[in-house]
Write a structure and sequence with these properties.
The protein is mainly alpha-helical. It has ten helices and five strands; from the N terminus they run H-H-H-E-E-E-H-E-H-H-H-H-H-H-E. The longest helix is centred in the middle third of the chain and has 27 residues.
Length: 252
């Protein structure tokens, strides 16, 4: 099972969802072969049930899916597929990322910058994942679970006004609203209420205008085109004066 580094065997990690989730089994059988150099690590204090970490070693990607609990619970089957698809998209080296420059800051600021990096990156990359995920999972269920997770995680935020939190929340907003757009375009006769938008406006009134402005820009671009994603990310870095810490590139 695990070794001293807390890496675990994939069959054990995925045993429950492979045996109990028809959607995940179909995804796994069709797509697993596409992702190389994948490891599974247990971190019981991790902030989310699953996330993927990417390293570039001699021009070859190495991926670690970090888990809060193993085996993975059935309710998190779509999250594992989601993180694996991030790895596959990274491996293709077609779409740019927000990457961190080398600099010296204290641990607290480094963690805050990492969170911003992840949220900006996810605002577009999550939609690339969702378009592929829709072949195997009902995105309306993914939408509901994602909204629940965001609302739950918001309790830990310090919401004193500043530009970094504005960007962080705006990327959350974009992520949910673009997913909603995909659902409404792919599922006929599907209706999604405005619960998330109402919740966001009620909890973050100071940030709503900026979030909507950024959303409209994201909606105007065709984010299936890598050059458009690059332009969008560069616009964000410029607008928020983050060029000191980040650049747009093809590795994380």
């Amino acid at each position: 099972m695990g070794n001293a580094d807390e890496y675990f065997d994939e069959d054990y990690v995925l045993s429950d969802i492979l045996s109990q989730s028809e959607q995940f089994r179909r995804f796994y059988d069709a797509e697993r072969w596409r992702i190389k150099n994948l490891k599974w690590e247990l971190r019981p204090n991790h902030y989310t049930p699953a996330s993927i970490e990417t390293r570039l070693n001699d021009d070859e990607f190495e991926f670690t899916i970090v888990l809060k609990q193993i085996p993975v619970k059935l309710e998190n089957d779509h999250m594992i597929a989601h993180e694996m698809l991030h790895g596959m998209i990274n491996q293709e080296k077609q779409f740019p990322h927000i990457s961190m420059k080398e600099f010296i800051v204290d641990d607290y600021k480094f963690l805050q910058l990492k969170k911003i990096q992840a949220n900006v990156d996810s605002s577009i990359h999550d939609q690339l994942v969702n378009l592929r995920l829709s072949k195997y999972f009902d995105l309306t269920v993914v939408y509901e679970k994602t909204v629940q997770r965001i609302i739950h995680n918001s309790d830990a935020l310090d919401i004193k006004y500043n530009r970094c939190i504005e960007l962080y929340l705006s990327c959350w907003y974009i992520c949910i609203m673009l997913l909603k757009d995909i659902i409404l375009s792919q599922y006929e006769h599907t209706k999604i209420d405005d619960t998330f938008e109402i919740w966001f406006r009620g909890n973050y009134p100071l940030y709503t205008s900026a979030a909507n402005e950024m959303l409209e820009i994201a909606r105007l671009i065709d984010y299936a085109i890598p050059q458009n994603v690059e332009a969008f990310f560069n616009l964000i870095l410029s607008s928020y004066n983050l060029g000191t810490y980040f650049f747009v590139g093809f590795s994380l």
